Prior knowledge:
Blueprint: H1 4-14, H2 19-34, H3 36-39, E1 43-48, E2 51-56, H4 59-66, H5 69-80, E3 86-91, H6 124-141
Amino acid sequence: MKPLATLLPDLCRxxxxxxxWTEQVAAALWKEIxxxxxxxxTRPVEISRSRLVVLVPSSSWKRQLRALRGEIVSRLNxxxxxxxxxxxxxxxxxxEQEPRTPPSAPPAKRSTPVALPLQGIAxxxxxxxxxxxxxxxxxxxx
Length: 142
């Protein structure tokens, strides 16, 4: 039995008249075509007359991705068996930006209480992390 990915180029050629179907397949495979990093910040939205339109979050992303046009076209055509020859980038600020890494929770409280003169540190999270690091250090020495 053939994997589904090997059948997609034939299916795309068979249903080439239905551009919407090809667009949906391209969107479904976008992460595999461009990689997770780019897929989180770009979105293919339209295939028309051998041109793929991709939404990007900013002009800087647009500039950077222009350099990758050839590679994107090559991978897209290989994955879908299509004849895409151009990629156009449109700016859309609603496209997901670089996800911010949420701050990790401060380490669990240690058994050794630490009294340090940390009142001068205004950032509460930094103050608690320094205190937790000192406690962890003291706990390891036991």
